[in-house]
Amino acid sequence: MTHVKNLSPMSRFKLSIIIPVYNEINTLPQVIERVLDQPFDLEIIIVDDCSTDGTQDYLKRILNPNIKIIFHKENQGKGGAIRTAQSHVSGDFVIIQDADLEYQPEEYGHLLVPLLSGQADVVYGSRFLDTHQAFSFWNFFANKILNLLTNVLYNTILTDMECGYKAFRADIFKAIRIKSNGFDLEPELTAKIFKQKLKVVEIPITYFGRSYSEGKKISWRDFFPAVRALIKYRFVD
Fold it and tell me: With a threshold of 0.85, does the pTM exceed it?
């Protein structure tokens, strides 16, 4: 993959990185370090969703003016964490960064280029267009069905609707009324993005998926809520 490290001097902007967190003490410190290492004017918004594994204790020790930390009093799911973060965004662009090591912060520049050029309002990373670890057959099959349903319902040609690596113009991101609490967040965002007829560009990203024994949380059970969300938000807001 081509990594874009040096952006045009005309593209001075503030980048908001949202990190939803639930029980990620094993990977979160490295993710934060790698995010802070990126060459942008950064604002990091971390929303802890009632972690119980020591993540909260770690976050309480962070003293960095560029990092905002919000603690949920009740577990609300990934969608709830992203919804909480919306009102804290002050940057020009927003990227959602999961707290594991599946997506690479070093690719922020790659995600931002279509936004900075005006080519896109939203950028989707795709796990199926470049190097990635092998998927299980059933995960691959479920993703293909969800992509097909998305493309039929919203008249597009996405290859990876469920990918969690998305970049937005901040004004567009903050205007989306997120209702989902769980992993049906991705189909809800997709529905509301395409119903607005926003400019969307899909680019390849590198992806190194972790196993369930390593803490992966999304499973085949999330397939059916995703289908319901795609159909529901096609017709309601």
Answer: yes
